[in-house]
Design brief:
- Chains A, B: Keywords: DNA-binding, Repressor, Transcription, Transcription regulation.
- Chains A, B: This is Transcriptional regulator, LacI family.
- Two copies of one chain form a homodimer.
- Chain A contains 13 helices and twelve strands.
- With about 325 residues, chain A is of the alpha/beta class.
- The C terminus of chain A is likely disordered.
- At the A-B interface, helix 4, helix 5, strand 2, helix 6 and helix 12 of A face helix 4, helix 5, strand 2, helix 6 and helix 12 of B.
- The structure holds a DNA duplex (16 and 16 nucleotides).
Chain lengths: ~325, ~325
DNA sequence: CTGAAAGCGCTAACAA
DNA sequence: TTGTTAGCGCTTTCAG
């Protein structure tokens, strides 16, 4: 690769002038033209490594997520990417597999690469942000929170859980189970709390503990929990799945048992990815994944630009998508 | 962040020695201990930016894909990631939206960041690899090919298309349509060629041109094409979808028309992501996405390590997953 | 085994 | 507006 010095020599200017041309400072038109010409000729691309070292900051933001194969997070990533891209930042996508150790490694890398900031969907509430925060790098958490005082973008999980459940009650279901994620993940227990609240209010005779299953936020987790629920002495007539993959797993098992929705009520928090079901068969409480990514990226860029106001928490609303499912059995 | 000099001072050694400790060169045990101790105390992490500048190469590989929201590519990404990770390399995931301009931008960034190598799923066969290849950076293409002389990992699309079609014939379907991707994308036309070959051989009375639809490799593309096929004077009784998202779109439309598989034959090249259908309803020719990622990453790492043998092309096999679907209508 | 010192390519004072 | 120059933090000869 050609360097700034070679370009300078060819263009008959100083290296500083070449740098200025590429950074939008005041340079006379003739010299700009000469530099551009020389750059083209030498196929010059400025070295980002040198720039990063010198500026102590790279135009890169890290997006750290627990599961790259979950469409919810790829949708979020799209939001982040679009905003970052148009501001001239690259996004490095890091996959933690919900593993705290991997998460810590990636945070170290972000630091050691001098990345401008981090958007983190925490693997759990025990994330260690000490180093990155004391280094003064901005961090925005998404989807879940931590105990640190950072910007966050979350959604109203409790309401989402309530809405999903309420709709099943309204449709006429009377024995509503719930499958949710790990007990120590806030999106999991908050959505379950929403379900519990509606049960208490509308179906007080039900025993929530009997009908609730904690699981992983994965398809096989949904499958296992659904099997378990169907094996109950008095099985449920409907289920709230607290995320997209759990919903897929539950519906798979139901289908295998001949209990196709909407005969068996299914309500999913988060949209069903690539569903082949007819849209009215399942209640979906849509989560604003893309929007969450856009919001987080925007906030992060503001911080990078030097915004120092106190940490903000943005709560995004969810929306009931198909409230019209009618009971057909 | 602490630097190597501060660590050196605290440990009572020279900066060079600190560097050696972190790079596995010969240093006496006492000094190693002193350096480690000092590093811990100062929370020292070596600056990758400086290292990259000095070594003219970063331990980062770029993975450039056309659609991050397609589970096929995220699965591929997982394969790449796992191999890279265990070799101490980070992966930067770049999303081109099948846009050649974005692809070129990302290739420039890879160069300008001194990344060690690139794994590219080309947006089309017109990708421009001139710069990156003349710079001597190794490139492995996956999924699709280019005209450049690089390593590649592809699969046998023609056979996959044949297998998907053949299975429908065997099941008893007699009017088999095909929905495939853009006409200039090799995975699209090769799979369609497989379909055409079986038609010619087993159902020579059919007019392939009437039953073939080129589209985008996206859900809405599958929907449109399927609608179009169903509106034919003499509609098909079955369809081959040449990728996962097309399959989803086609099945959605079929379901809306009351033509649920397996009554209407559906064969998909690439697995149905997060399907809620019963497994026997649809024929799936599974593509080795993860394996492809693993293979590509392994090859790339070999090149990075200095392997200079002539370019290799690895062709991965696909596998028929549910050949047992019986016609039930 | 260890240290001194040069230099990777760029940016930003400072001077002119 | 332009050039000179120091230095970002690391690795790597070269001496010792």
């Amino acid at each position: 690769m050609a360097t700034i010095y070679e370009v300078a020599k060819l263009a008959g200017v100083s290296p500083a002038t070449v740098s200025r041309v590429f950074n939008g400072a005041g340079v006379s038109v003739e010299k700009v033209a000469a530099v551009r010409e020389a750059s083209r000729e030498l196929r010059f691309t400025p070295s980002r490594a040198a720039r990063t070292l010198r500026k102590q900051s790279a135009e890169v933001i890290a997006l750290i997520i627990p599961d790259i194969e979950n469409p919810y997070f790829t949708e979020l990533a799209r939001g982040v990417e679009d905003v970052a891209q148009s501001a001239g930042y690259s996004v490095v996508l890091c996959n933690t597999d919900s593993d705290l150790e991997k998460e810590t490694t990636y945070l170290q890398i972000a630091l050691s690469e001098n990345m401008a900031g981090v958007i983190l969907a925490p693997a759990s509430d025990k994330s260690d942000l000490d180093d990155i925060l004391t280094a003064g790098r901005p961090v925005v958490t998404v989807d879940r929170q931590t105990d640190y005082d950072t910007d966050r973008v979350i959604m109203d999980n409790f309401r989402a859980g309530k809405a999903a459940t309420e709709n099943l009650v309204r449709t006429g279901f009377r024995r509503i189970a719930c499958i949710t994620g790990p007990q120590d993940v806030e999106t999991a227990y908050e959505r379950a709390d929403g379900w519990r609240a509606i049960l208490r209010q509308r179906l007080p005779d039900l025993d929530p503990d009997e009908l609730l299953r904690y699981s992983t936020f994965r398809v096989d987790g949904g499958r296992e929990a659904m099997e378990d629920l169907l094996a109950l002495p008095e099985p449920p007539d409907s289920v709230v799945a607290s995320n997209n993959l759990l919903g897929v797993g539950a519906i798979q098992v139901l289908t295998e048992h001949g209990l196709t929705p909407p005969a068996f009520g299914v309500s999913v928090v988060g949209s069903l990815p690539f569903t082949t079901l007819s849209p009215s068969a399942v209640t979906v409480v849509r989560l604003p994944a893309r929007h969450m990514g856009v919001t987080a990226a925007t906030q992060l860029l503001e911080r990078i630009a030097g915004d120092h106001q106190p940490a903000r928490t943005v709560v995004l609303p969810s929306s009931l998508e198909s409230a019209t499912a009618a009971r057909t059995s």
